[in-house]
Amino acid sequence: MRNQDIKNKKGFTIIEVVLVLGIAGLIFLMVFIALPALARNRRDTQRVSDISRLSTAITNYQSNNSGAIPSDKYGNYVSGHAEVDQNITRTLNHQSWAYFYDSYLLISAEAKDKFVDPDGDPYSLSISSCREATSYDASTKICNNGQRSKSTWVEQSEGRPNGIDDVTAGNPYEQTGSKGHTISIVTNATCEGEDAVHASGSRKVAILYKKEGGGSICNAI
């Protein structure tokens, strides 16, 4: 009787084994594909939060300066840096974007961490204007400068958004900071979708940054 029971027990067939291995391989492949996308999405979510933090910092600066924003008369680019250089900071005009970076992003009471991209490199700031009639399209009002919708993530990270090197005039952190991961700040502008468009008023600002997973952030103040 025992021998009969043993004979009646059947193992897996080759087809069943192949089927199980195929399903396991498919699941592994799906996870392998999904994990990098999930990681990119998490990093982009952090970038959205970082741009919101920058917007709040500009609003705080305005509250302390009768509604005015920093002026590009004292430089239109600030290289990314994780630490305040006191030798530089003490020489900065308090209306400059570099002073704003040091005082409102790095040592503000609200700043609980460094102002860095999720990949570990500090953000830079590039400031341009959409004030003059020649700086935007007359029909669409789309600004000629500072856009990120047609740039790639890599170009932005390397400091050459849209394939054009960042203009770093008047950059006090040029020697000690790092170029790239450039957030675009366009004055006299607001947001229309992912683009900066002309807006009346020098206190209007559009903040733009390309996301790693595609699409661009545009926050208006």
Put the structure in a nutshell.
This protein is of the alpha+beta class and 221 residues long. The protein is 35% helix and 15% strand.
Tell me what the structure shows.
This protein has about 220 residues and is an alpha+beta fold. It has one domain (about 35-220). Helices cover about 35% and strands about 15% of the residues. The protein contains five helices and seven strands, in the order ααβααβαβββββ. The strands form two sheets. Strands 1-2-3-6-7 form a five-stranded mixed sheet. A two-stranded antiparallel ribbon has the order 4-5. A hairpin with a 2-residue loop joins β4 (about 190) and β5. The radius of gyration is 25 Å and the shape is elongated. The termini are far apart.
Helix content: 25-40%
Low-confidence stretches are none
Order of H and E elements: HHEHHEHEEEEE
Assembly state of the chains shown: single chain
* Biggest sheet: strand arrangement: 1-2-3-6-7
- Gyration radius, rounded: 25 Å
User: Strand content of the residues, in percent?
Assistant: 5-15%
Sum up the overall morphology in one term: elongated
Helix-strand makeup class: alpha+beta
Distance between the termini: 85 Å
Count, helices: 5
Q: Please, what is the average pLDDT?
A: 89
The largest sheet, given as strand count, sense and whether it forms a barrel, is: 5 strands, mixed
Count of folded domains: 1
Extended strand count = 7
